[in-house]
Amino acid sequence: MLASFNEGWLDDSQHAQIADWPEPIYNFEQNPVTEEGFQLGRKLFYDPQLSRDNTISCANCHLQFTGFTHVDHAVSHGIEGRKGTRNSPVLINLAWNSSFHWDGGVNHLDVQAINPIQHFAEMDNSLENVLHYVNDLREYKSAFFNVFGDSTASSQSLMRAISQFTTSLVSSNSKYDQFIRGETTFSKQEKKGLKLFKKHCNSCHTAPLFNSNDYASNGLPIDSVYNDLGRYGITKVGSDSLKFRIPTLRNIEHTYPYMHDGRFKKLREVVQYYAEELDRSNSYLSEKLKADMKLSGNDQKDLIAFLCTLTDRTFLYNPRFGFPH
Amino acid sequence: MNRILCIILCFWIHSANAQRFIEIKLDKDSLQNEYTIHTLRFYLSKFRVHVFDDAWYDEENSYHLIDLDDPDSWKIQLSKKISKSSIDSISFLIGIDSLTNVAGILEGDLDPIKGMYWAWNSGYINFKVEGEKRSIKANFEYHLGGYLPPFATVRQVKLARNPKNRKLIIHLNLKQFLDQIEMGELKEVMIPGPEAVALSDKLSNCFSLE
């Protein structure tokens, strides 16, 4: 097992076997990951022909080197420069997520990719068109036959192929993971940061996945451009107003800008927001954020030093997850 | 009666060797007196045939997309033979149950490619009707769906059989449904929420058994 951690990726049989991690939520029995299926999903993920004008692939907004998000873009854009309304989420450890998108509107990974394919501001295509395209190409037909036993792709096999790739994007070999496994040591500053993290952050961004499958309001004032009410847009329940999914902090050093609308460019701005700027009398604030954080300038630096230990270079630079050659 | 738009689901359950199927009949003439229908698609699912007192038969994999534009969808084959005389009542869902809504990517009538699926708020559109009300020259679009409480929109209908009738025919009185909507105020419903719930309640009362 440890040998494969050090290689930075997991094959299909290893999803459920990471020590001390919870069981994945994704049902691998329904869609068992194979090498051929992974490679098919990877090919689809990097194929710009999935977009209506053949210009963008999934990877345009989900770049590997930045944790599969759209680095330096507050909100992402699709074909013809059309702008979306949210910061593209990272694709990290998706098999442990119970919902997807900032508002959690997508309830299963296998139906997520329908969204970017169809969204006007993303690929602006249709499932029908994508199926026609892959079903016309010999290389895809043989790949679909090898993986699903049918050379004609269906919505189901198309989506499951993509999931075979995206569930394989497992990041579990950061310095933090190595520290937990006793393979490396933390500096004094990183240890102090870890202590502060456990006290102030871990109840929502819970180790080892550093997320929660839940929604919370972190008190950010509503953005003036999009008037994005988050979870409320899905449930229409008043108490869900301004709640967003609690994202993973793995590889957070590289996934800037931050928050659902990308309003913070630097990690120090994020920490400073929670420590100093957050209005704790705010009525819609998550209960967990109502206690004072009291982080000195040095504390904030220590916390950031810890957050940087969540960077997993064997994940970010693993050629297996990159453009297929 | 001829002013009433009826989609007739003929639930013919023959004894012995006969085929069993649900047939849908549509009277377009009566429809056009007041409404022009451009699109009518809806799911009927989980058919249960109640026999005698407490026994029943559940149709397997019972998810049926009924589409005005697809004549083939007007006939639904059932998988089991049941003696007609023993049937007390039938029940079914208008729409798709919550478990199926969270089951990921499905096939057949449940394939998202059928246009009855919301991707951004994953889940099925249970009932979709689009058209025009001629008297007020207003277009309407009602897409009813949503499975999350408190705005769940799937509705169960249970209809008792009149022993005198040889055939089991389910009517959907679409005119009755549309007449209940203040179209001047509510021209469209495209998302889950309280409006979709209110219309789903109205819709569930528009089914009857001849």
Attribute tags:
heterodimer; A: 325 residues; mainly alpha; Cytochrome Bc1 Complex, Chain D, domain 2; 12 helices; 2% strand; globular; B: 210 residues; mainly beta; nine-stranded mixed sheet; five-stranded antiparallel sheet; 43% strand; disordered N terminus
What's the quick description here?
Chain A is 32% helix and 2% strand.
Task: Describe this protein's structure.
The complex is a heterodimer of chains A (325) and B (210). Chain A is mainly alpha-helical. Chain A folds into 2 domains: 2-170, Cytochrome Bc1 Complex, Chain D, domain 2 (Orthogonal Bundle); 175-313, Orthogonal Bundle (Cytochrome Bc1 Complex, Chain D, domain 2). Chain A is built from 12 helices and 2 strands. Chain A has helices at residues 2-7, 35-45, 114-118, 127-136, 138-148, 155-166, 175-180, 188-200, 232-235, 267-277, 297-307, 313-316; strands at residues 212-216, 244-246. In chain A, strands 1-2 form a two-stranded antiparallel ribbon. In chain A, helix 2 (35-45) packs across helix 6 and helix 8 packs across helix 11. The model of chain A is unreliable at 1-16 (pLDDT under 50). Chain B has 210 residues and is mainly beta. The two termini of chain B are 13 Å apart. Chain B has one domain (6-209). In chain B, strands 3, 4, 5, 7, 8, 9, 10, 11 and 13 form a 9-stranded mixed β-sheet that branches. Chain B has a 5-stranded antiparallel β-sheet with strand order 6-2-1-12-14. Chain B is globular, with a radius of gyration of 17 Å. In chain B, a hairpin with a 4-residue loop joins strand 8 and strand 9. Helices cover 12% and strands 43% of the residues of chain B. The longest helix of chain B has 11 residues, at 194-204.
